[in-house]
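Sequence, please.
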């Protein structure tokens, strides 16, 4: 499989606010969160991943939700892309993550909203 190991610093973040709205993150949190430079720390061992999304404001570990909803997450490989399907109350929820050169791409989707994030290897 592809190698995602490392620290990745956000360079672009499109439509993140739409995603936060779609999972009902409150206004005050959204206003702060959409300006954060997020860092992703990934520890990968073959098919085993520990991914943390860090920021000066709040952190996120994939096993814990931000919106208190229960989702059933299934992550699979599509070639060298990681594809997550998150079954739950919100339709079409999940994300896709892949590497191009020294960039990490992450596309997050909920309902009809799509957020595109790009991170650069530190
Ligand atoms: C932050 C800041 C506080 C508010 C919100 C956040 C959202 C984090 C998200 C992370 C998704 C990570 C994924 C990782 C895949 O490997 C930045 C913690 C709402 C949505 C999909």
């Amino acid at each position: 499989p592809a190698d995602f190991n490392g620290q990745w610093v956000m360079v672009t973040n499109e439509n993140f606010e739409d995603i936060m709205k779609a999972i009902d993150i409150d206004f005050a949190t959204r206003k702060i969160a959409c300006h954060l430079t997020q860092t992703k720390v990934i520890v990968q061992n073959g098919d085993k991943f520990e991914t943390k999304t860090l920021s000066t404001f709040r952190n996120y570990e994939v096993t814990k939700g931000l919106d208190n909803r229960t989702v059933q997450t299934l992550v699979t490989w599509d070639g060298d892309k990681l594809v997550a399907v998150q079954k739950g109350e919100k339709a079409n929820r999940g994300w896709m993550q892949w590497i191009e050169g020294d960039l990490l791409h992450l596309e997050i989707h909920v309902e009809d909203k799509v957020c595109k994030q790009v991170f650069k290897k530190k």
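The chain has a mean pLDDT of 94.
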